[in-house]
Structures are given as C-alpha cells and as structure tokens.
Amino acid sequence: MVLVWFRKGEDKTTLGAGFGVSRATAYRYVAEAVRVLAAQTPTLHDALTRVAADGWSHVILDGKLFDTDRLAETIATVKDDTIDAWYSGKHRDFGANIQASMRPDGLPIWTSDAMPGHLHDLTCAQRLDATGALYWAASELGLPTLADSGYEGASQGIHAPYKQPADGRRLAVDNRAYNAVLRSMRCLGERGFAILVGRWRTLRHSTAIPRQVGDIVRAALHLTHFEYRYLPPSC
After folding, report:
1. What is the DSSP letter of 188?
2. What is the per-residue pLDDT across 42-84, written as a single tens digit (0 to 9) for each?
3. Are 101 and 48 in contact (CB under 8 A)?
4. What global pTM score does this model have?
5. Rounded to whole angstroms, how far apart are CA atoms 215 and 174?
6. 176 burial class (0-12, 13-18, 19+ CB within 10 angstroms)?
7. 166-199: per-residue pLDDT in tens?
8. Rounded-to-integer distance, Cα 154 and Cα 122, Å
9. Which of 140, 137, 128, 127 is closest to 159 using CA atoms?
10. Distance of alpha carbon 156 from alpha carbon 138, whole angstroms
11. Cβ atoms of residues 38 and 215 within 8 Å
12. Is there a contact between 134 and 113 (Cβ–Cβ < 8 Å)?
C-alpha cells in the first residue's frame, strides 16, 4: 500500500479503501513507513565517504523546491516585513527547499531536511551544515563539489560559476572557459531530482506538513537506492 502511495501519489482515503483498511489506518501505515524508510538513508558524511571510496571524482550539490499546500506560518524579514515562511518568491509557489548531493552520473546519494521555501539554496546549505561536510570531503577525501550560481560564496571546495560583471562587460576568456567546463560536468546533477520526482509521483505535490517533506523525500531516496542496488554492503 505504501509503495502504491509513493508511486502514484494516491489520496490516502481512496488508497485505504482499495486495500480494505480505514482512513486512519492508511494514514498511520504511510507515516510509519516513511519514518522507517527515511531512517535507512546515510548521513552526508557517510554518503561522501562512500562516493570517494568508489572512485568518483566529485559530487554535485543542488536544491529544489518541493511543492506543498499553503502553510499559515509567517516570518519577519531583515526589513521587518512579514512574509509567508514557505513561499518562494523565485518560484512563486509554496514549498519546502530540499538540498541534495548527487554522484557525477546523477544518482542522488543524500537529501536534506525540509527548509522553508523563502530561503535561498546557499542559506539552506549553510544552516544544514552541508557546506561544512562538503568542505571536509574536499580537503580530506579529495572530493570537490560542483554547484550552480546559487551557491556563490560557499565554503572552499564548492565550485560555482563566475557571474557576469554588473557593469555589462564580458567575462574574461579564462572565466568563460571555466564556466563552460563546470556546467558541462554539473548538468548531470539535474538528473538526481528528476529520478526522484519522475519515479515517485507523491513528491510532485505534498499535502503533508511542509516540515515532513524532508522525511518523505529521504524515504523515496532509500527506495531509489534499493532499485539501483546502491544499498550499503551490509544490506
């Protein structure tokens, strides 16, 4: 029943009726399964250590807004304006920001807790201490991280493209070449979220509390690792 929910994103009341259980039981089964599956996923340190041991040259960092229902939670900005905590002005939608690390071939190896949608990718990565773990991997494991321009100014070991000069001048030829190489290697990271959302339809829109989205995505990540036979050797 839980696999059907992940795969098809069915309404839990309808899902329970199809499997001959009550609405409350369906909700409980899904919640319990999500907790169990999410607990099986590795920490970022463990995921990075395994990638390095497998001989990969780098990892890719990216963030995605997972669409959710509106949540009446507000927050004050630095200008003392009140905004919706889970509303993303960039995407013009409500959702949870999830950070993820991918192998060079695009397979996701780690996903984060849910962060409010109004936060930028770099802020989320810093608050989750993902930048610290990635810096450690670059310095201790020789495993650098490639990221998009949303992570400009991140810690050492996280490589982001150079931005165009504000005065309209063209980037230097060396910087343009650097950006071209970086983007050609980083683009496969877009496949990571596509694998999760394409395979598990329940991730396309969540009616759960936004803060629970992190566990739901991690549970889907564990199912993906099972399908790709990427489970720890002990399993």
Report:
1. G
2. 999 999 999 999 999 999 999 999 999 877 777 777 677 787 8
3. yes
4. 0.91
5. 42
6. middle
7. 888 889 999 999 999 999 999 888 899 999 999 9
8. 7
9. 137
10. 8
11. yes
12. no
**60 three-state secondary structure:** strand
Handedness of CA 43, 45, 46, 50 (dihedral sign): positive
Which residue type, as a one-letter code, is found at position 171?
L
Question: Nearest-5° angle of CA 158, CA 93, CA 133?
Answer: 20
For the record, the structure tokens of 197 come out as 């959302």
Whether residue 135 contacts residue 156, with contact meaning beta carbons closer than 8 Å, is answered with yes
CB 59 within 8 A of CB 109: yes
Cα 111 → chain centroid: 5
Which tokens in the block code for residue 146? 């490639």
Nearest by Cα to 34 from 65, 67, 5: 5
